[in-house]
Structure formats: structure tokens, C-alpha cells
Design brief:
InterPro entries: DUF481. By secondary structure, this protein is mainly beta. It has 2 domains: 117 residues, SH3 type barrels, CATH 2.30.30.100; 214 residues, Porin (Beta Barrel), CATH 2.40.160.40. It is 6% helix and 67% strand. It is built from 1 helix and 21 strands. The strands form 2 sheets. A 12-stranded antiparallel beta barrel has the order 10-11-12-13-14-15-16-17-18-19-20-21. Strands 1, 2, 3, 4, 5, 6, 7, 8 and 9 form a 9-stranded antiparallel sheet that branches. The longest helix is centred in the first third of the chain and has 21 residues.
């Protein structure tokens, strides 16, 4: 009986050791340890799933001193380098990346700005969000409804994203107003935090009498700042513009240059801020220039919900006759993200 009891204890110990070998772990600066499945590091926050919690833990990356995981991750460094591999801390000052190529490299933990488990399935690389807004005023039967949505996909050497936004307003004795825009964006990552962007933008609004405005652009970009609390990138290139108006004015086709900048701040608690501005000086239409500007602030809530406030502006110094030079919209809404 005593031998049987000893054997059971040994088997349990071997089982627990084998389980521990496949689990990830984080060691914090205060020497606390958490064990589970490390999913991602994004915008200065690391996400880990444990067996004893209904929801994932989200922890500030700056509080982590050591990380241990044998999973395969897509990893981005502050220098702009991108790698595939696992993470393991052998000394307190560095994390060793064991790359899928068979090589390994040491980096400072603060130099790691992004990683995510890299699976072969499509869904693990996908992100999505959608939010809705609605308002009603009885005095003049004013109603306004809107939707803002985004979809993203990240691969080892490129990323793609899409967005769709719509707002409609109706009011007694006033013509209905509508603003609709969509975008498709692709980035091919290059060394040293350079990238090649290719973008498509769609706009339709009643304020500027635009039935369809399609913009195709491509160029070269670079992240000037890329850290665990923010990034700032700039890009420039050329674009092709096609416009169809709601009036009798003939449609326009023209070439433009473009210069853009994007700033994302995410180390401000549960609040994030993303803003982007692009200037389009005309090439074939001398003297014409346009501006597109967007800013979104998001406050995270439990259960993957959030509250978002967004502002969009379109400016054209040479609109068609009868149209306004500027169109802007301010939207607030409650949303959910995947």
C-alpha cells in the first residue's frame, strides 16, 4: 500500500511538471508570478489567459521583468524589425527570441513593442470592432443614426485593414443629410520601420454634393516613433482621384500628391487616441488642394465594450459650384471589439 501511494505521488508530480512545461509565465518587477497562456502584447498591454479566471488578465508591459513562452509569436521590435519565434528570459536584462529560422537573438524587454500568437488559422490574425449611435429630438422630429466599423488582419510581413462609417440625419422641413465613407488599406513592412502603403478611399456626402469620390494612393512610409506607449508615422506618395457629383457637373479625374501623418497614443489608462491627417496637393489641377482629417478617442469598458468619440473633416478649396468647402461630422457611440 505504501509503495502504491508513493507511485501515485510520483505520477502526480510528473503530470504537474509536464503541465507546467507547456504553460507560459510572467514574472513582475515585484517578483509576483502569473502562469497561463500568453496571447499578445499590444499598445503597452500584455494579455494572458489563466485557468482560474473567467476573463483574460491585461497587465501593463512596463511592470513585467521576465517572460517565458514556447509558443510561436509574430514579434515587432522598437527598431522596426519583425520576427517569428518564442520568448524566454535567461538573464534579468534581456529576453532571448528563439526564431523559427533556428537562430536566436537577445533584446531588451523594453525594445519589444508588439507580439501576438501566430497560428496558421485565419481567425487568430483577425481583429474587428463596430459601434452604433442614435439620437432623437421630438421638437422638430430630428433623428440621427450612425455606424463606425473597422476590420484588421496582420501577417508576418504585411497587414491589411478596412473601415466603413455612415451617418444619416432627418428633420422636418429640411432635406435629409448623409455622409458615407469607407477605406481599404494595405501595408508591406520593410526593414528599419519603413513600409509601402497602398490605399483606397471612398466618400459620399450631401454637404459637398459628392455622389462618389474614389481615391487610390500608393507611396512610402516610415514609423518615426514606435514604442510601447505610442507610435508616429509619416508617408508620402501619389494618388489618383475620381469624382462624380450629385449635380450636372461633369465627373473629374485627376492626379495628386499626398502627404500624411498618423499618431496613436495608448498608454493613457483605458483611453486611446488615434489621429490621422492627409494633405492632397493637385498635380493635374493646379492650385487645388484637399485635406482629410480624422481623430478617434476610445474608452475601454468591461466585456470588450467601449465608448468612442470620433471626428472627421474633409476640406476642398475648389469644390463644385453650390457645394461647401468643408464637411465634418462628430459621432459618439457604444461599441464592441473582437
Amino acid at each position: 500500500m505504501k509503495k502504491l501511494f508513493t507511485l501515485l505521488i510520483l505520477l502526480i508530480g510528473v503530470y504537474q511538471t509536464s503541465i507546467a512545461d507547456v504553460r507560459d509565465s510572467l514574472v513582475f518587477k515585484n517578483q509576483n508570478v502569473i502562469v497561463g497562456e500568453i496571447k499578445s502584447l499590444d499598445k503597452g498591454v500584455i494579455t494572458i489567459e489563466t485557468d482560474y479566471s473567467d476573463s483574460d488578465f491585461q497587465i501593463e508591459w512596463q511592470e513585467v521583468e521576465q517572460v517565458y513562452s514556447k509558443q510561436n509569436y509574430l514579434i515587432t521590435l522598437m527598431s522596426g524589425e519583425r520576427h517569428n519565434g518564442s520568448l524566454w528570459t535567461y538573464d534579468p536584462t534581456h529576453v532571448t527570441l528563439h526564431l523559427t529560422s533556428g537562430d536566436s537573438m537577445k533584446v531588451r524587454i523594453e525594445d519589444i513593442v508588439y507580439f501576438k500568437t501566430y497560428e496558421n488559422d485565419f481567425w487568430s490574425r483577425l481583429s474587428a470592432s463596430v459601434d452604433f449611435s442614435y439620437s432623437f429630438t421630438k421638437a422638430n422630429n430630428f433623428t440621427q443614426a450612425g455606424i463606425r466599423s473597422a476590420l484588421g488582419y496582420v501577417a508576418s510581413s504585411w497587414s491589411a485593414s478596412a473601415g466603413y462609417n455612415l451617418i444619416r440625419s432627418n428633420q422636418d422641413e429640411v432635406e435629409p443629410t448623409r455622409r458615407e465613407d469607407a477605406n481599404l488599406n494595405y501595408k508591406k513592412f520593410l526593414p528599419k520601420d519603413f513600409y509601402v502603403p497602398a490605399n483606397y478611399g471612398y466618400l459620399s456626402n450631401t454637404e459637398q454634393l459628392i455622389d462618389v469620390r474614389s481615391t487610390f494612393s500608393a507611396g512610402l512610409g516610415k514609423y518615426i516613433v514606435h514604442t510601447n506607449d505610442s507610435y508616429f508615422g509619416v508617408e508620402a506618395g501619389v494618388s489618383y482621384l475620381n469624382e462624380v457629383y450629385t449635380t450636372e457637373d461633369p465627373k473629374k479625374n485627376s492626379m495628386e500628391a499626398y502627404f500624411g501623418a498618423e499618431l496613436n497614443l495608448y498608454d493613457i489608462g483605458d483611453l486611446t487616441l488615434l489621429t490621422r491627417g492627409t494633405v492632397y496637393p493637385g498635380i493635374t489641377e493646379g492650385g487645388r488642394w484637399r485635406v482629410d482629417y480624422n481623430i478617434d478617442t476610445k474608452y475601454d469598458l468591461p466585456l470588450d465594450l467601449y465608448v468612442k468619440v470620433g471626428f472627421s473633416l474633409n476640406f476642398d478649396n475648389q469644390p463644385v459650384e453650390g457645394a461647401g468647402k468643408a464637411d465634418y461630422v462628430l459621432q459618439t457611440g457604444l461599441g464592441w471589439e473582437l
